[in-house]
Amino acid sequence: MRRLVPAWWPASPALLWWLVFFVMPLGWIVFYSFGMKPVAPGGGAVDTATLSLANYQNATSGVFLVVFGITMRTAALGTIICALVGFPVAYALAFHVAPRWRTLLLFLLMLPYWTSFLLRTFAWRIILAPEGWLSQTLRGLGLLERPLLILDTNAAVQLGIVYNYLPVMILPMFVALDRIDQGLARASQDLGAGPIRTFLNVTLPLAAPGIAGGMLLTFILAAGDYVVPAILGGAKGLMIGNLVATQILAAQNLPQGAAMAIVLIGMLAAIVGGIAVLLWLLRASLRAFRGPAL
Fold this sequence. Notes:
mainly alpha; single chain
């Protein structure tokens, strides 16, 4: 019998939501990015009488380009640290924690997300303050001679990003590891492979989608973060999200801020696409080297 409705019809509410609240606003941002800041007061937010690429030229030169580089470096380093810290935690939860305790530990892992993101980030200002308890403790132990001067620096931003997005890294990794059939690891060991070889040839390839997903989510969220740099970074921890907000709210230059936002989206898309191509080439090379069973 012929299908009465298209196969995609059940997804139409989600598609409509995505179209109205994402595609259309993004289209307006792209359009505004080609406009100009009104010269006369009261001339509106954007002057679209003459469209040009001047905003994109500004966004990819001078201090803007430096801030883009700092943003990519901070997001990449935060993603790597989250992966190095998060994978052992996810591995332990999946393979070395009893099922009766696993739910409780996952609940505790997500418990900080019940608190406001803004409030949790502000709490780090108290912890990292030069006269805060962390500084006083380190000085009392003889590990520091001076007050802790990490607040309002890029290091504080890095710490805040790792703290806030570590659960985002752990959960996809845990899901991927938890779905691995332990019989595969036992079969590998029965065939003579040791624990390290089993991990590298069985566990790690099967967990690769979860690792890639966690790193992708963390990198995108960290690159577009506005709250953490604004609260913990000050003038020394500037990232592109703060610069976009400054252009729109302080400088009243919506077209320039829109162009910078589009450049950021383009850079993230290019990085993600490049990584996807590299992973595909790596997988194809491994298949050619080890056979189609990989």
